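Continuing the batch. This is chain 6 of the set; chains 1 through 5 are on the previous pages. Same settings as before, nothing changed between runs. Recording input and output for traceability.
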Amino acid sequence: MVAQEETFDFIIVGSGGGSVPAALVMKERGKSVLIIEKQTQIGGTSAYSGGVIWIPNNDHLNAAGGNDSHERSRTYFDTMIGPPLPSSSYARRDAWIREGAEMIRFLERKGMKFVHAHWPDYYCERPGGILDGRSLAAPLFNIKELGEWAPKLAAHPMTSMLPLASPESVALFTATKTLRGKWIAMKVAFRKVKEKLLGQTIRGAGNALQGRLFQIAFRENVPIWTETPVKDFVVENGRVVGVIAEREGRTIQVRARLGVLVNAGGFSRNLEMREKYQPKPTSVNWTQVNPGDTGEMIQAIMKLGAATDQLDESFWLACSFLPDGTTFGFHSPNDIGKPHAIVVDNKGKRFTNESSSYMEFGQKMYAAGAVPAWAIFDSRHRRYYPWGGALPGVTPKSLIESGYMKKADTLDEIARLCGVDPAGLAQTVERFNGFVRKGVDEDFHRGASGYNHYYGDPTVKPNPNLGTLEKAPFYAVAIYPGDVGTCGGIVADEHARALRPDGSPIPGLYVTGNTSAAAGGRVYMGAGASVGPSMTFGYIAARHAAGANQ
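Output for chain 6:
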């Protein structure tokens, strides 16, 4: 028997980046709202993330002299995405540009804090791109300010354990070579001491973003139900009017007068869906998303007749894994884009620019059949730069003994250890070393853009991304196309309404985040190009449902 619970004006399923902005819109308009989260922890994969959001034409960028505009942003969208897609209509692109900046103003009026991240657009050299980037980040945050909710804020063990702002992390990777890197390392050390002395838990990345947003939500008395999985929708006369959920051992019905927004992530942890839709090989063990990203809400919406798009795509992120399956590092482009490293397929051939966007790098891995691929680097890379969880100049014996990292005195031997064609690798390294000496990668243009340089080593000339491979010993690690979420889902319009294949909306149903097919199509425009639209279209959905823009 289904028990009838109270009725709200608006129900939000999932607690990722788009949920709090939507809830705050409803609260400001005097409407009742409920966030329902199936996990014990809140924040979704947004809390796992780098906590950066990509917002075109935002005030922080323009205050810093970014000279952005709606027209310039739209040029960048159209250059990178091309003609309209089911996931990315021209109206949807315009909505992201127009409403994203207003969403930031709205949140800041509520007490949220953002800073310009100075992170280059990933294709900043293309028409409409901006070298200083359209990305924003939240300042460091003491998550103990959340009180009893602090332990319930989700956290990825590799992105949320240091008092480090995401934009600082790139400089930290050159701490052995640059003054800025050394300064950041000293700041992190000082913050750790401060944490201990003051009893704080200072965090950056997704914990700073989501922690600050939830602090405002709690201040505004937004109710959040955890451990409450939604099983289905309540539909009357073709309109979604509520949800069926499991709560405290009971099946309950919660009704919504104005609509339901689904922000429940994608299906990265659903092997059956990955096998059905995603490129092969694939594995739920490669993903970096939160455990609740299992796709059942996408499946439930599909049963209502919704259209889908891009289910074969993900926000790829090259990763490596220890023999026990533990993620050891994210490698694209923070370390494989540094000098003295290349990535090859089993023929020993490079297949793309190692300093390119991580999503593009994953796409190229699959296109080349290079799963896994092999990162090959020499002793100078190990001396100067981190490799995942290994500090510069420190290579624990356990990494070698476990087989995770190969080590050899010659390239021929390293190739044989990896099962890579020795002759192919030798030819590739000889050709690559020639490019290094000229400072120009004639094959894949590594180091030819501001985004590439952002991840390079500025002390290396003439190209901060290029360094020869010739100083033994040599090292190699298998890398895989991990992901930070699936990129396909329910097709939505510029109001974030879920659409049927004929383009008509499903009344009362809205989608955002990775539940929706990405508004950026198959391109990652800049840092935060998944969390940014999640927040933007969550804001848009709530305004539309509340009648604010009608």
